[in-house]
Amino acid sequence: MAQHVIEARNLQKGFDNNPVLKGVNFTLKAGEVHALVGQNGAGKSTLVKLLNGYHQRDGGTVQLFGEPCHFSSPREAQAKGIAMVYQDLSLIPSLSIADNIFLTQSEHGNPLISNRERERQAAPFLTALGVNIDPRQKVESLSVGEQQFVEIAKALAMKAKVLVLDEPTASLSNNEINELFKVVNKLKSQGIAIIYITHYLSDIMRICDAVTVLRDGYTVLETATADTSIDVLVEAMLGKKANTQLTWARQVAPANAAQVPLLELRDVSTAMLSHVSLKVMPGQVIGLAGLLGSGRTEILEAIYGLTPLTGGEIFVNGKPVSIASPRSAIEKGINMVPEERRSQGLVLDFSVSDNVLMASFERISNSLFLNKSKGASIVNDTIKKLGVKTTGMEQSVRFLSGGNQQKVVIGKCLSTDAKVLLLDDPTFGIDINAKYEIMKIVNQYVAQGNGVIFVSSEYAEVGSFCDVIYVVNKGRIVRQFSEQPMSEEQLLAAVQ
Ligand SMILES: Nc1ncnc2c1ncn2[C@@H]1O[C@H](COP(=O)(O)OP(=O)(O)OP(=O)(O)O)[C@@H](O)[C@H]1O
Known about the structure:
By secondary structure, the protein is an alpha/beta fold. The protein is 35% helix and 24% strand.
């Protein structure tokens, strides 16, 4: 039998007496791309953090190339060839690619080498990935996708035999995703094994050889991708048959010209935007479609008072308004779920409860006193409706899994009295079940006469879910569609 790269048996790990992994098995073979899936909070990150020495296991065994192993730090694991490519990239933007590739190695006492020599030595690692970037370039001039390639090259320079890619396609354009998949195939052909964490099940069918599904602390399915299907994976993740639709056709809300728009932009310009006009009518979900960097997020930021207008006007309920800050936007009934949820949407050291209630303080405060039971019922409702996996409403959000943090940000916005919600990629990093719940809640929200502007990098979502879609390109609105639904292919063609 071929020797396995990693063979983990009956792994256990808990935090503060709260078991997360109760009996997890995981086998990784050489040259294999192995997907790790499970609902938000299932323990995917915890498992890889046990394998790379970031956390210490409470029980179970791990063998690396047939040898029992126990790493007490990521550095130790790295020395044995296990490298993580994190979602939050760990490169130093002001340094060159070559400097970044060898950064951790010089810390290990390698003889100092000249810049030119370092650039010469870096080049083959980039070439091995088949990417055409100059090692002299500064990392800050690279796209997110290119930065990820530098992270991978850095791991190769450290002689990685196992790479962990955590949500690698998040924030990548379609072209970059294709490039990434080519790189993954190259790595595979060089015998490198890859652990691939993602919520995009169709990516798994496309790029992974095997899948392990975690649920309730256990491995519930280990299979070759060729022997399974998306439906089977979803059922294993949820423990039940579920609605696995990837589109959300809704009842179209016909625009009623007699109604006053909840929000209107007329000829709005900023440093990044040029003459943007759009309307949000009561009951409507407005979609913004465009390639990465097209200006979709900038439109939301201009509305939310994060960037000053250099021209044009914003109207709320038909009246011109000036929105100079998020606070002023919230006062006018506009709230936003930002794309960068950890840094912009949450106070990490505050509890789930404080984070959810932060934006609705006035609604639940009764003169000088906070109405505690009203607050608790809003928080409980949010936890239940969105399925936030937490030990309780007092748990600090820092210790929630990435997807559950996102749910708290969404819960916080939905619990306010906002009439218009700006949702910037709200379903990114969210498991398929929670996605469905979020779409349902947004539906209910607009059915009450509210409005939503929705940005998503998944064209199938925008195409099927929105009443009106504006296509954004280079900071301008270039097209508008009101026929519903639009297919992913139609929308993709429109944004090019
Ligand atoms: N340092 C910690 N302290 C306390 N609890 C933690 C800690 N790290 C993780 N947890 C808990 O362990 C559980 C699993 O989290 P983990 O991040 O491994 O999930 P995940 O499957 O990666 O989720 P996601 O898909 O949302 O990224 C969560 O309930 C989380 O709150």
